[in-house]
Design goal:
The complex is a heterodimer of chains A (516) and B (76). By secondary structure, chain A is α/β, with parallel strands linked by helices. Chain A is 38% helix and 15% strand. In chain A, helix 3 runs antiparallel to helix 12 and helix 7 runs parallel beside helix 8. Chain B is 87% helix and 0% strand. Classes of the chains: A alpha/beta (516), B mainly alpha (76). Chain A: It comes from Heliornis fulica.
């Protein structure tokens, strides 16, 4: 089904998201597949327990036999019996820069994925549809990396200290000023690791007696930070504003659970683009709700900074809103800027508070200078401060690639989740047997994809996730689309019940027929 | 050429069966075991249908026709 504009005056352009449901038989067959896998899992566990087969992992020591068993829960069962069988599709080592194409080390297994060995051969120029390289800044071009090389020779690679001791370099100050200018806020602070930015700073902002309203599908770093803080956590349905409003009203009417006092703070945790669904947050509605009920908003723009928006400034620009509406803007440099690390930006008071109270500032090593320089050069390129329009061209190219890729996939008849403008494209596979078959056959065609299965997604909705990049050329995308077309027919993946138009390029322009 | 197309189509059907029942991920001896069991169950279903379904259908047909239109027949 399509989501149209519910509150017409808030959205300046149409907000179209797709979350089509597959026909019922697909869900039935998925469960059947998992059932067969589970039965054979029990059989193999039985054989291992009775010594008919060698145990490779999850063996307790002789002295532990009378203790509570360690490896009987479902997660271990699943890992041993279902994940191990198709394990060769993950953790594949690459040996080049993860640009639009990369080199893969070939590895084979002799004992059904329990051990791997490298043959020594390298598979060259595999098209990369899995790296978060949205603007193509993961490059090795010498001219582009000139300033990074200079900084590397000036500072070396190690910082060897935390921000509060001796680890604040002038590079960090320069970078923070640039990030603040880029986003249009008062001040920003950068950290060495994106995951740690979330998990170490949310505990500094909220504590006991506060309420966190977090989206159903938030990333693990946000969940971890929320749990570490000790605040009460309530979950609202994914991108569902009615659910969020109901929770806000209940929070304000009923207050804290037993004492009925007002909550000290109510904070809403959302992400800009959700990486497993490809959906974009409904920011105008959330901001109007936050203003009405006097809550705070924490926006995690890990995937959306640099990737959406007319000049790459994230979802705030995509919806045409002002960055003052969002209280805490958080993002990472790992995805669009080709570096590592994260930032938190907002009002100067907030950032000064975090400089003294954040766990990451006190205990974690700060960002290393060459990486900071890479972010500086990428951001300057994006803002146009290096004198070229290359940054804007990259953002435009990403938008064009995204729209082309999604349009062609819809036309072919695959089920794709997410917003039409998000560069993260999940293609639904559903059945567990198809996960392994899809990834292996795409690698045979020299295309590297990321497939995701049960613990990271709901059990019936396993998917392949494509990340479109500005560095992909039209030919690369066409190669991938043709391979997907062929593979979709061979594996029977085209479940969509809507728009299956014939290939537009085969349509003869000279046929003029009157249509009724 | 036609034989090749037919063979490819049969292979494609076999591959769909492997994917749907998730026996694509099993090791060869597990696959043989699974195929044996599936074929046995399927053969038993087909045999039962062949032996019993026509008899039951005929009996049901006679039962219903006797209930609705039986009297005029026996008055000869």
């Amino acid at each position: 089904q399509k989501n149209g504009v519910s509150n017409g005056s808030l959205y300046k352009k149409t907000f179209i998201e797709h979350f089509e449901q597959a026909p019922m038989y697909v869900a039935v067959l998925t469960f059947l597949g998992f059932g067969v896998g589970t039965i054979f899992g029990y059989l193999r566990d039985f054989m291992r327990a009775w010594g008919l087969e060698k145990r490779n992992i999850a063996t307790e020591r002789e002295q532990q036999k009378d203790f509570v068993p360690l490896y009987q829960d479902f997660e271990n069962f699943y890992t041993r019996n279902l994940y191990m069988r198709i394990r060769d599709n993950w953790n594949r080592p690459i040996c080049s820069v993860p640009g639009p194409q990369f080199d893969l080390m070939e590895r084979v297994t002799d004992d059904y994925n329990w051990t791997f060995r490298f043959t020594g051969r390298i598979i060259k120029n595999v098209i990369n549809m899995g790296s978060y390289n949205y603007l193509g800044f993961a490059e090795t071009d010498i001219n582009a990396l000139k300033t990074v090389t200079i900084e590397l020779q000036k500072y070396g690679t190690g910082v060897c200290s935390t921000r509060q001791e001796m680890g604040t370099l002038d590079k960090h100050i320069e970078l923070e000023k640039l990030v603040a200018k880029f986003l249009g806020v008062e001040d920003a602070m950068v950290f060495g690791m994106g995951f740690a930015t979330n998990s170490m700073n949310i505990p500094a902002l909220v504590g006991k007696g506060c309420l966190i309203l977090s989206d159903e599908l938030n990333h693990t770093s946000l969940v971890l930070g929320a749990r570490l803080s000790g605040a009460t956590i309530r979950i609202f349905k994914h991108n569902n504003m009615q659910s969020l409003e109901k929770l806000l009203r209940d929070a304000i009417i009923y207050g804290q659970p037993r004492s009925r006092r007002a909550w000290r703070k109510i904070i809403i945790l959302v992400e800009g683009i959700y990486s497993m669904e490809g959906s974009i947050v409904r920011l105008p509605e959330i901001v109007s709700l936050k203003k009405k009920y006097k809550a705070y908003l924490y926006l995690d723009e890990a995937h959306s900074i640099g990737a959406v928006g007319a000049t790459g400034r994230g979802v705030v620009e995509y919806f045409g809103m002002s960055p003052d509406d969002v209280d805490v803007l958080m993002g990472t440099f790992t995805k669009s800027f080709g570096a590592a690390g994260g930032y938190i930006a907002g009002k100067k008071d907030l950032v000064d508070f975090l400089r003294t109270h954040s766990h990451s500032a006190v205990y974690a090593t700060s960002m290393c200078p060459p990486v900071a320089e890479q972010i500086i050069r990428a951001m300057k390129c994006l803002m146009g401060l290096d004198g070229t329009t290359q940054g804007l061209q990259r953002v435009r190219q990403l938008g064009k690639n995204t729209r082309y890729f999604r349009r062609r996939l819809h036309e072919m008849g695959f089920i794709i989740y997410g917003n039409d403008d998000s560069p993260v494209v999940p293609l639904l596979l559903y059945m567990p047997g198809k996960i392994g078959a899809f990834a292996r056959r795409m690698l045979e065609k020299n295309i590297g994809v990321v497939v995701v299965g049960f613990p990271a997604t709901p059990i019936t909705e396993s998917r392949a996730r494509f990340c479109v990049s500005a560095a992909h050329t039209r030919e690369m995308l066409d190669t991938v689309l043709n391979a997907l077309d062929e593979l979709g027919d061979f594996l029977h993946l085209k479940y969509s019940r809507y728009s299956k138009s014939s290939h537009p390029e085969l349509y003869e322009e000279t046929r003029f027929e009157l249509e009724d | 050429m036609d034989i090749k197309r037919v063979k490819d189509y049969i292979y494609w059907l076999y591959f769909q069966y492997l994917l749907i029942t998730c026996s694509y991920v099993l090791e060869p001896w597990e696959q043989s075991m699974f195929h044996t069991i599936t074929v046995t169950v399927f053969a038993m279903v087909v045999y039962t249908a062949y032996v019993f379904v026509p008899i039951h259908v005929r009996l049901a047909f006679e039962f219903f026709s006797q209930m609705f239109g039986g009297q005029p027949d026996s008055a000869v």
